[in-house]
Amino acid sequence: MDRREFLAGGSLALATAGTHSFAEAAQRPLPIIPMTDLIGGIEGRIGLDIKPGTHDFGTGAMSQTLGINHGYLGPVIRAKQGQTLPFDVANNIGDVSTIHWHGLHIPGDVDGGPHQEILDGGVWSPDVAIVQQASMNWFHSHMHGKTAQQTYNGLAGVLLIEDDASLSADLPKTYGVDDFTLVLQDKTFDGVGRMSYELTAEVFEDGFQGDTMVVNGAIAPVQQTVPTGLVRLRILNACNARFLDLSMQTGPMRVIATEGGFLASPVEVESILMSPGERYEVLVDMGGADTNALNVNLDGGGGFFANLFGLNQTTTALTLVRTGEQGFTGSLPTKLANLEPPRPADATVTRSFELQMDVGADLVALALDWENFCGNAGAMAINGMPMKMDRIDEKARKGDTEIWRISVDDMLHPFHVHGCSFRILSQSGAEPPAYAQGWKDMVHVDEGWSEVLVKFDYEAPEDTPYMYHCHILEHEDCGMMGQFTVT
Ligand code: C2O
Ligand code: CU
Ligand code: CU
Predict the structure, then answer these.
(1) Which one, of 358, 3, 360, 481, lies nearest residue 202 by Cα?
(2) Is 279 in the pocket of ligand 1 (CB under 6 A)?
């Protein structure tokens, strides 16, 4: 079966399974993820316990999950630029794992990639120095071959970095009142409402596509009361593979920040196409109507087939209900940060990467062989080479500015680089949308080159190299990943 037939099959399956009964209950309250707030100071070490849990997503049934200090997902950790975070990450999930700090500008030896395995019963104690500016980051499993499964099961959390400028900025910033962190995921539930995840050849191809939206661990739509005024949404697409097209029911979205920090000024848009791994902060004006809603089109990346089969399903993720109380009284800021345009002329090195879906592997046979995770057999590749733990693919020099050019043989992929933020010069052969022109660590790759301007300021030696990879987690597990050093 070729790629096109796969896609058609997948889309048709989605059509019949698309309207899910679990989503039709009365709206649940938005779960506010407990915050570990370190801004006031850090006492002792910060314990993160990775462990099995149970969780009710709203189906009434308990799902077997994984969590970090919680039954499902991890805390929202809030820290400040200049702090060093002394983590003790204890693994008790019954399997090897790792925790990677996605988005952090940190050296390879504390990055938490696939080389920093935490054995079951073990503890990993990195001291993570926060050097970068205010930004929304996250952390998740990066266990090679099992990243997709472990992250899906719940090994993910959010790490918000603040700095002096963000703490004094005239923006909504009362957590859980006018400042919300939203972790968006797609899930599949079995007949009795337990979360399920089954790897098949098709899931390896498309990445896992769940039919039910989940926000902070609760099945969408969820509902939240908010005061009158501007409301801030910090959004993470933590789906394994789904691109999400986000829009507001009423009015525009004002994008204020990308993965690596604030934009120069708010960018007003109708919708944002958000890949897995991406983060955006938006302001929503709750000064007018009594309710507004964050809508999600689940087929954001589905383009051709979604249109062909009329499958552009839009779901409400979050309904905001205004209480009438006055909240944030400021107005929409006109300037957010000093953000110089990228200077490609500074680059002294250019590298090219071709993401390869089709390297001739028999995914049907491999999927049957593997036990619901990726057996690391090299079914996908970059530049002809599937990820290998003992092969360094690229060597960068600390302080060099580089241009990375990425292309792909089929479909839309989200490309991610560790240890840095970059600027997008072009995305799939075109200028990136204005809202994606800030500091990023994810870029979309479809037809045509995507090019990013990047500089590496921290070391990643051969025993703890950085990764670059597709952030469709099943592709990453299948080998669409490479390793590089910075020395
Ligand atoms: Cu979010 Cu290498 O990962
Ligand atoms: Cu990362
Ligand atoms: Cu991919």
Answers:
(1) 3
(2) no
